[in-house]
Amino acid sequence: MARPRPSRGEAGEIRNYELIKSMFKTNLIRVIKTGLQNFWRNSWLSAATISIIVLTLFVITSLLLLNVVTQSIVADLENKVDVSAYFNSESPETDILAIRQDLIKLPEVKSAEYVSKNEALKQFKERHKDNPTLIESLNELDDNPLQASLNIKAQSASQFEQIVNFLEQSKYESLINKVNYHQNKEVIDRVSSLASNIGRGGLIASFVLALMAIFVTFNTVRLTMYNWREEISVMRLVGASNWYIRGPFIVEGMIYGILAALVTLIILYPALYFVSPKITSFLPEVDLLYFFEVNIGQILILLVGVGVALGSLSSFIAIRRYLRV
């Protein structure tokens, strides 16, 4: 069955659609081609711009990897830091175990280990087995002088204070002799501040370098636009849209970002191949090279995304200021 011929109006709409499609394709090719020409025309400036963006991306990625290391260190320190609640000698074991059950229900508590008086004595003797005088003096005592305790670990070092406040409730006051939180508070505070300071410092460093990258790319694109000033003037006179003028320079900025991301990735792999074994020798649970290889796809997407954002944003700002003139 033959297809019905389109009406005159429909035929006109089809021609208009094909014309718009052809113009869009032509303009897109022109934008990309001109952007590549701009990139190669100022090769030295392009190399300098890419170098700055590479430095920014390298630092951002290094901070990401440093965060992996510091999180591992902080987690290890947090596992070693605990708070102990020591109980009065007359406190019944059933009451102590009831407190333990209350504690482990708290979302802030990672674990709560009960150490009986006899177990505490056994551990004390093991720690001081090289001091026979102390052991002999302890054996001469009629009663076990050590106290039963709960050794409490928090999910995060910053949560110990909430746990201690829970223990200092009046219903536990008659059972607990002391909580050694205040003796350990300085260590706990240092562990908490270590993570936050590293994160804050990394953000500041990344922000400063990102501003530098934007500034250098901004000036490179401005210089390119100055070289194209006559062509831009002609395009504006014949009614070319601002986006038609902007296109090649935004493409140029995106090229800077993409190439910078690839260069950064090429530099990172051998650097990690050299550094990772040295870090692993001190921190066996940290393998940066393995982390990099497993997450290379996400890291590449991050680098390209940040690089393109820096390059295109710088170009957009430069063009916007230029077109206002």
From TrEMBL:
All copies of domain ABC3 transporter permease C-terminal, residue ranges: 204-324
Localization terms from the record: Cell membrane
Gene3D superfamilies: 3.30.70.3040
GO biological process: cell division
Pfam annotation, one family: FtsX
Domain FtsX extracellular, residue spans: 81-169
Membrane-spanning residues: 44-66, 203-228, 249-276, 296-319
GO cellular component: plasma membrane
InterPro entries: ABC3_permease_C, FtsX, FtsX_ECD, FtsX_firmicutes-type
Repeat among keywords: no
Membrane topology recorded in Swiss-Prot or TrEMBL: Multi-pass membrane protein
Swiss-Prot/TrEMBL keywords: Cell cycle, Cell division, Cell membrane, Membrane, Transmembrane, Transmembrane helix
Homology family: Belongs to the ABC-4 integral membrane protein family. FtsX subfamily.
Name used for this protein in its record: Cell division protein FtsX
